[in-house]
Amino acid sequence: MVHRDLSAASLGGDKSVEIRLTRERLIITNPGGLHGLSIEQLTGSDLAKSAVNQRLYELMRHVKTSDGSSVIKGEGDGIAEILRACRDSNLTCPQFFDNGAQFKVIFRRQSRLSAEQRQHAQKLAHNQELSLIQMEVLLSLEQGATWSIGQIRKQFAPLRQSEADDLLTELSSLKLASYQDGVLRPRNTSHETPRDKGTQQRRTSDFSSRHGSNTAAIVAQLNHAPMRFPELVEAIPGLSPGQIRYALKQLQTTGIVVMEGRQGQRSTRYRINRSTKG
Questions:
Q1: How are strands ordered across the β-sheet holding 18-21?
Q2: Would you place residue 191 in the very low, low, confident or very high pLDDT band (cuts 50, 70, 90)?
Q3: Which domains does the chain show, CATH number per domain?
Q4: Is this model's pTM higher than 0.90 or not?
Q5: Among 35-44, 117-126, 172-181, 214-223, whose mean pLDDT is lowest?
Q6: CA 227 – CA 261 distance, rounded (Å)
Q7: How far apart are CA 32 and CA 9, in angstroms?
Q8: CA of residue 62 relative to chain centroid, distance
Q9: How far are the Cα atoms of 62, 112, 128, 144, 216 from residue 220, in angstroms, in the given order?
Q10: Cis, peptide link before residue 241, omega less than 30° from 0
Q11: What mean pLDDT is predicted for residues 77-100?
Q12: End-to-end alpha-carbon separation of the chain, Å?
């Protein structure tokens, strides 16, 4: 009730909180859109709160359960707890949709990192113990990515600045990456030949200059787990199906993404090619 929109536009015979559970996802739909904040604010590392029913919200802050616990904290950290729980359980980040008339959240029964990806990350780390976030970052470094504290906090929100800095510093301390001037980069190892270094530099440069934000958005999703085309379309609402299809072809041509299955089949999945050499 605290977050239920009780305005005239969201009240009616068929307008109610809806919870649907399928084999692949949990979908929660709430009548009424977000009030006073955006999805970016809601899911960011800095807490944001905006009460829909202000008086009820303030009243419930003072209500206790039978064991003395607060019914709500009133600090705006409910979504942050959900994001943190999914992230730390190796589940993909829930998706939030707001069209002004309703607010929808989709939880997928899907891992951020597959068993194969975790094993590969451990191999890259020489079996040193890493967190799931560090594994994901390490895998992206292999593809030539770089990370700043701001990027880490945005990608893996909620994260405090000190937490993000600790994650990057530890990867550098383990000699798995280079962390200088607030940016984490792939490490240049002494045993690499000039040809190896040139290949890595070309791959990083090519990805940055030749591939735009569309391909970067797809790579970010596939770094979590392999996905089918309809899942990519739903996961990246800012791109049209045609844009995603074109970007996938670019990524397949360069060998960054591999298609598992046949074109046109619903079961066909796309994944990051971890064996890419250049």
A1: 18-21, 25-31, 102-108, 95-98
A2: very low
A3: 8-108 (3.30.565.60), 115-186 (1.10.10.10), 213-272 (1.10.10.10)
A4: no
A5: 35-44
A6: 12
A7: 7
A8: 34
A9: 42, 11, 24, 13, 6
A10: no
A11: 88
A12: 54
